[in-house]
Fold this protein.
Amino acid sequence: MVRFENVGLRYGSGPEILRSIDFHLPEGSFHFLTGPSGAGKSSLLKLIYLALRPTRGRIALFGRDVQAMPRDELTTLRRRIGIVFQNFRLLDHFTAVDNVALPLRIKGAKRKEIEGHVGELLAWVGLGGQAEAYPPTMSDGEKQRVAIARAVIGRPSVLLADEPTGNIDPEQGIRILHLFEELNKLGTTVLIATHDQSLVSRYKHHPVLRLERGELKRIGPTRTVSARGRARAEP
Amino acid sequence: MNWRRTAVPFERERSERYLPLVVGLMVFLAALALTVAFALDGAMERWRVDLKDTVTVQLPTGGPATAGAAAGQRVEAALALLRATPGIERATLLPVGEVERLLEPWLGRAQLGLPLPTVIDVVRVAGAPFDRADLAQRLQAVAPGAIVEDHGEWLMRLVKLAAAVQAIAMAVVVLVGAAAAIIVVFATRAGLAVHRNTIEVLHLIGAHDDYIAKEFQTHALWLGVRGALYGIGLAALALALLGSGLADLELLPWLTFAPDLRALLALALLPVATAMIAMATARVTVVRALRRMP
């Protein structure tokens, strides 16, 4: 699903902030990406969601080498990746429902289809009554749930979340992790970047990728939860 | 769900508030230049038709030949020679009242007591060969002091001058269009900078360049339409005032700012062209900027 081989990344002529990264996220897996602040977690996520191109190495998404792909085709891959950004990145002039509907509007989905899905999804994240609220009037927990709904409305194959519990209280964090697990059970490959070790410990049944000073130091438990909820060995 | 709201929040952008006014000013200048070009076109056409095959013979006053019966004989002799000359279709003595009417705008009514020359209006056979010098020499023999003015000569100079002014007017239209496009480029770049975060989000959640470009180009289209309507409205007002002022003065009877069908069509197309330029420029600017994204 997601494969990195000897990937390196540097910004401009600066030092390499990611060095010789090798890993594979199998389909239907659930991983945590941990490490201290500044370790390169967000940069690694950006490489996966194609906001950055690596300076060396090879990245393959859904079995396709992204370096060799024409720019226009990258959009097709991006549509298969749901992203929950660290600071939500919702459009403040859009209501919750409009924010969630945006990926479908971009895809050119029909109005009736969009309205049905969006209402359903907002109810699923517990924001059925907040559909017409604007992000500036919402709490961080509510914004996070809108961001999650927006990330999954297009039924992505891979869901990436950058510090999804960073700005919210522990109770909200657990609720959001529960949503991610539910999505994973439906077959979505999930990668959550967090520096919150207590969160990782709480969900220790999921494997962990640990980044330290730009290097992938450790790959955690070797069991993943498959699409059917069955434990399997990671290749 | 609000389906009309664009993903890029243009309504929050204050930097481009004055863009329609600037575009309006450009359209106003272009409309004036276009009108001048068409007015000159019409005038040149009229000159060609009215003056191409005409010659004026002047018999100045002063001297013994211009007094009393001698004056009448001089005029009759000149008319007879002209009418007998091959290639001349008609030679008509211009009444004194008509000469006064022609000179009145330039000299004023008070000055019309001055001695006026006798003027003979000569119409040549279209396309027939004409030797002005030979005619002038033969006229000197029967009507000393006669001056032959071939309109064709100065008409050519006038037409060349008018054509040059017309070319300048059209160049002004093109330059104004280019200036409008440059303004749109800078406004669009400012918009791209202001909305960078939104554009990045759209890009990352799967928007094609075309989707983002459409938002900008549609916005630019409406700004262009607004600006063009301001400009064309202002130009219509200015031309109406100018036209009525010229009509009152009767100074340049050959130059009219009442637009003909071609001019009206060109003026009607000006807002459309402006809006299209704004839209196309915005699209190209956005697409080029987006191509720099991964």
About this structure: Strands of chain B lie at 54-59, 88-93, 118-124, 147-150. Residues 61-145 of chain B form one domain. Residues 151-194 of chain B form the longest helix (44 residues).
